[in-house]
């Protein structure tokens, strides 16, 4: 009896910690870009928070879950502020590591794509809706981050580093596994797929084709 009572609590805590880890990772990603762009403290905090909660906010709005989760539970916003503040405080040290930004971005992408897919399943969406919601949860914050920082969104052109495709694959994994495993296991597996695809693409082992125009036009 006690095991049955504790199991849902443990599962809920595990999923929440995965979400909060993704929030902090994405906040670090956005805030580190702001530090590189020489934003002031306010700008760093704003860009970090927008990156962390932007994708989830778009997903919640599209599925009618308003106000977005980060406004209903401010723990997520505090986690985003913490990640952004850490980036501002230790930005110089973190910047010494060439792949720091990419690592945090990948962690956030993987966790958000998987959690977004799980939320879409709970909302009753079909497979395409689950994949779209998961992908949007993963890439939405990064797109907003890049636009604010006056960068071309990475999702639009980096065929050598799978981004939206990896997020969609992770969301599909969650959808495919959720009838057979626990939500925590499905989210973990989806996150692992995203991370694996990102790693493979960074090494040049997985990429998307590009359509070339004839006669040197593109």
From TrEMBL:
This protein's record includes keyword Cell membrane: yes
Q: Which InterPro entries match?
A: Gly_transporter (IPR005115)
Q: Which UniProt keywords apply?
A: Cell membrane, Membrane, Transmembrane, Transmembrane helix
Q: Which Pfam families match?
A: Gly_transporter (PF03458)
Bilayer topology: Multi-pass membrane protein
Annotated Glycine transporter domain ranges read 17-90, 103-178
Q: Which family does it belong to?
A: Belongs to the UPF0126 family.
What protein name is recorded for this chain? Glycine transporter domain-containing protein
The scientific name of the source species is Deinococcus koreensis
């Amino acid at each position: 009896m006690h095991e049955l009572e504790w199991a849902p609590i443990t599962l809920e805590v595990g999923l929440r910690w995965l979400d909060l880890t993704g929030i902090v990772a994405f906040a670090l990603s956005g805030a580190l870009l702001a530090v590189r762009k020489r934003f002031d403290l306010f700008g760093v905090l704003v860009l970090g928070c927008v990156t962390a909660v932007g994708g989830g906010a778009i997903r919640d709005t599209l599925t009618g879950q308003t106000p977005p989760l980060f406004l209903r539970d401010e723990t997520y916003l505090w986690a985003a502020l913490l990640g952004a503040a850490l980036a501002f405080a230790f930005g110089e040290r973190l910047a010494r590591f060439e792949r720091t930004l990419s690592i945090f971005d990948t962690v956030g992408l993987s966790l958000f794509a998987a959690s977004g897919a799980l939320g879409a399943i709970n909302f009753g969406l079909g497979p395409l809706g689950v994949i779209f919601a998961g992908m949007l949860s993963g890439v939405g914050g990064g797109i907003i981050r890049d636009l604010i920082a006056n960068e071309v969104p990475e999702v639009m052109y980096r065929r050598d580093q799978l981004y939206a495709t990896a997020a969609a694959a992770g969301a599909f994994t969650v959808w495919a596994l959720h009838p057979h495993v626990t939500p925590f296991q499905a989210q973990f597996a989806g996150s692992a797929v995203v991370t694996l695809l990102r790693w493979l693409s960074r090494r040049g082992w997985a990429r998307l084709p590009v359509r070339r125009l004839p006669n040197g036009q593109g």
